[in-house]
Write a structure and sequence with these properties.
It contains eight helices and no strands. It is mainly α.
């Protein structure tokens, strides 16, 4: 999956969704993708459009959220929580869930921390700073 180009990766989301709709068996990664898609009914029509979803550009400066990036952050966070990597993230996640009241909202708040950490690493051409990431997540617990 990690060697796929943008449109190929997006096509994987569309294909997993189509398999789900057709009640076909899903591979484990496809099942995870479908779980995330089910949390986001606002993306269903887009994913049903198939090719139109795959090739579209999303312009963040103009307020367009990239649904594939958003779903990818969900998958990345799930993987991090499963491995508790960076160490302590799972405990922080539980605290954020307790603070905000539900797992989905907690995940969305943590996405901002993850995205900022990834952006920073990209800017510095370095690995993501796990300590900075954990500090950003801890900062969520201090906010209202």
């Amino acid at each position: 999956m990690f060697d796929l180009k943008r449109d190929q990766l997006r096509g994987y989301y569309v294909a997993a969704w189509q398999k789900h709709l057709a009640a076909q068996p899903l591979e484990p990664l496809e099942a995870q993708i479908v779980e995330v898609i089910l949390l986001h009914p606002e993306y269903h029509a887009l994913l049903n459009s198939g090719v139109d979803a795959v090739g579209r550009d999303y312009n963040a400066p103009f307020g367009e959220q990239n649904p594939f990036l958003h779903m990818g952050l969900h998958l990345a966070l799930r993987e991090q929580l499963a491995m508790d990597r960076p160490a302590g993230l799972r405990a922080l996640y539980r605290q954020v869930v307790a603070k905000v009241g539900d797992e989905h909202s907690a995940a969305h708040r943590m996405h901002a921390c993850l995205a900022e950490t990834l952006w920073e690493a990209q800017q510095h051409k370095a690995l993501p700073d796990e300590s900075a990431y954990l500090e950003r997540v801890r900062g969520l617990l201090l906010r209202r």
